[in-house]
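Feature request, filed as a ticket because there's no other form

It would be nice if the structure record came with a short human-readable summary line next to the tokens. Right now we just get the raw output. Example of a typical job, pasted below so the devs can see what we mean:
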Amino acid sequence: MLHGKSGQTGVARLSPEYGFESNGGHDMGTTAEELRAIRENVRAICKDFPDTYWREVDKKEAYPQDFVTALTASGYLAALIPEQYGGAGLGIAEAGVILEEINRSGGNSGACHAQMYTMGTLLRHGNEEQKQRYLPAIARGELRLQAFAVTEPNAGSETTRIETRAVRKGDHYVVNGQKIFISRAKQSDLMLLLARTTPYNDVQDKTQGISVFIVDMRNVKGNMQISPLDMMVNHHTNTIFLEDVEIPAENRIGEEGKGFRYIIDGWNAERILVASEAIGDGRWFTERASTYARERVVFGRPIGANQGVQFPIAKAYAHVEAADLMRFDAAARFDRQEKCGAEANMAKLLASEAAWEAADVCLTTYGGYGFARDYDVERKFRETRLLTVAPVNNNLILAFLGQNVLKMPKSY
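Raw output as currently delivered:
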């Protein structure tokens, strides 16, 4: 079981292999040895779930229940839950390393990553009764909070345009609407739901009038229909229809109408963790590609002896490692509670694009074999492509940087 690190201090500096080394000040307190231990422990767990396991899960479009159970038992899914609520109380850097190593080992951390960060909205903005009611059980693995219902068919990235309504009636809210691209709803006990409590046209500031709720999916009052979508990747993604669903008022997180700001508050953590997953993918691809290029002999010599094969792999490797530095810079700022919106978004942008570059290079290196399921390249190829689009499209990151960092006119 993973344990926390109460009372540790130390200034972190970047280390090419492990991310951080301590030099004795007041910062994250994560030493190279501690990150090395996390990496080794996660790799040990992943050894019990080799390529054949993930290949079969993907083929059957199944949920990797055994893997999620093992990771939960290790305590790693509770990494970001404070020790006072039964979690490990680790930082975003350590959490990122956990997800990175899952993907680097050939797995798909998307099957459970939301359990790690979705609770952040509850942790930062929920009241103490809500935290005590849910967080310890989530930390123990008795409750799963893996679903966050935000996106809608007519809203997409323009979150303020959501149409799902929550109307207060006495001690509860009645919710009607539709959500789309909501992953793991059927594998979750709890779901965070974003809904309008004040119509769009009735608020001057369009970010107001939106609230966040905890939905207990084990005991739904009303009609909630979860319809799986046939997707390119095995993320158990759904459309959710809500008809007169009753949610107790005590399950609203924070103030009514402030929910948009609450979810924005969690975006930086999400960006950093997704960047970490992409880096894990990128390293998987460059390791597989370079190994294959050394071993595959054509015309009497390894194909990796040809610059046309070798150089693209080397370039992809360099881009993945550069993105890794941006990821750890963003993580350090986040864990110091500094502003890190630009860094978190750049980490996600650079890491996802580097991973996609590595995926393309790997597939090209393998040639026809790359399309064969038994080599796992095509599965990881599909999985990593998602990260350039979700949870935020990279074009929106560029728009954010152009407008908010470089102070250029709004482009959309």
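Something like this underneath would help us a lot:
The two ends are 47 Å apart (CA to CA).
The domain at 12-140 is CATH 1.10.540.10 (Butyryl-Coa Dehydrogenase, subunit A; domain 1).
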